Amino acid sequence: MIGTVLYYVAGALAALSLVFLVVAIRAFRGRRWLGSLGSAGTGALFLSLAALAATLGVSTQGYRALTLEEVAATITTVPTGPRAFQAFVEFADGRDTTLHVLGDQLLVDAHILKWRPLANVLGVHTWYELDRLSGRYVDIGDERSMPRTVHSLKTAKPRDLFLLAQRYTLLALLVDTEYGSATYVEVTRPARFEIRVSTTGLLAREVEGP
Fold first, then answer.
1. Is the pTM of this model over 0.85?
2. What distance lies between CA 150 and its chain's CA centroid?
């Protein structure tokens, strides 16, 4: 998982900062002032990078790295009545859930993170997280007046990355933008769909049952 890797990076950077701080203390005791200042500065830098890696690990919980195209979830739909159906969602990480949906169509949208070139150099590319699953009516009048159902597909996070990016300049240097993408398919019979994420957005493909 991306978060786990970032936690390991944070731990390694914190250990390096501790080493440099110990060297700085020894240099200070030996009255090597320049060496003390240099080691202390390097230690502080590594400590800041460790805090940044840890913050990214916490705030991007639930996100997945996006390659050219991959399956974010597989959804099996079963009509249960007029303009109503059950959606059995199997996530890429092994989780699953069953949701009751009202509407003619299944609508899924995702939250996508785009990073600046500096982050790309560090190996961090586009990330995504499924956001919501809802029902959609074909007729716009029905969309305005008929009952609606909306279910969250997100993973709970203790911190929001974009609020942090507004607050901390170092994070703002890495985060470029966030945007949403959605796909929908009509539900008229039992069917199974792969919800795929590509570099151009979400798409739904019908597949054979297991």
1. no
2. 20
